[in-house]
Amino acid sequence: MTRLLLIGPPGSGKGTQAARLSARLGIPAISTGDIFRDNVRGGTELGVLAKSFMDRGEYVPDSVTNDLVRDRLAAADADSGFLLDGYPRTAEQVRTLDEFLATRGHSLDAVVQLTADEDETVSRLLRRAAEQGRTDDTEDVIRHRLEVYARETAPLIDVYASRGVVVSIDGLGSMDEVTDRIVDALGGLGIDGKAA
Ligand code: B4P
Predict the structure, then answer these.
(1) In the annotation, is 151 catalytic?
(2) How many domains does the chain have?
(3) How many whole angstroms from 125 Cα to the centroid of ligand 1?
(4) What does residue 189 show for φ and ψ, rounded to 5 degrees?
(5) Structural domain contains residue 195
């Protein structure tokens, strides 16, 4: 059973690597960003609320996000492990996740930190804006997302580092190179994919 999370600034490759690792490790990738975007597309109440925060580069309120993730983690397919992508992002979300796992006698096996400098992340997100037209990928909103990340989320890495579970991975290079680095680092911890 493998329980992982991926953490890093917007554009560091979390969503990209989560999909690849999910396939390699045979565990569901749970992306709060994807869940919010699905709801925006579906025009649900949650989607309308989430969009009002996402379009400004702000985090969706903890109360909403925590309820959503608790429900998702309680689903049967997460029993055999999971890879959280983009959650937790605040100290309150860490507390909620800790509590959820502790009541089940579980804990995280590893926290994969993806690093990438600001010039690279901004240029990746502007490229994605040109290709996909995501409404939160305009330059002003991207800069704001990076500020919010530095203020709210970057400090969480120290929290997990003090528990000895952080694996820091250089997110620069090709997508395949980054995947190989993560797979190697997890392999060193005894966390292996189903098949090579
Ligand atoms: P997310 O969906 O998590 O968006 P993100 O931080 O931009 O990362 P993403 O995973 O999409 O991008 P990636 O780096 O993989 O969150 C969006 C919003 O949802 C947040 O701003 C917030 O409002 C809300 N939200 C989500 N979770 C929340 C939470 N827990 N609490 C509150 N609010 C929450 O990829 C970026 C681009 O780089 C892609 O185009 C990709 O193709 C490219 N790329 C990736 N790897 C590359 C490589 N090695 N080389 C070149 N390009 C690469």
Answers:
(1) no
(2) 1
(3) 8
(4) -95, 5
(5) no
| 132 within domain boundaries | yes
In a domain, 12, yes or no: yes
For ligand 1, whether the C-beta of 183 sits within 6 Å is no
Max CA pair span of the chain: 45
Residue 194 forms part of a structural domain = no
Residue type, 74: A
CB of residue 10 inside a 6 A radius of ligand 1:
yes
Active site residue 51: no
Q: pLDDT tens for residues 90-125?
A: 999 999 999 999 999 999 999 999 999 999 999 999
Q: Is 128 a catalytic residue?
A: yes
Report the C-alpha gap between 109 and 99 in whole angstroms.
Answer: 16
pTM of the predicted model as reported, rounded to 2 decimal places = 0.94
C-beta 66 within 6 A of ligand 1? no
How many angstroms separate the alpha carbon of residue 94 from the centre of ligand 1? 19
Name the nearest CA neighbour of 78 among 60, 104, 59. Answer: 104
Q: pLDDT digit string (tens) for 9-18?
A: 999 999 999 9
For this structure, is 145 an active site residue? yes
- Residue located nearest, by CA, to atom 39 of ligand 1: 128
At what angle are helices 154-161 and 91-103 packed, to 10 degrees?
Answer: 40
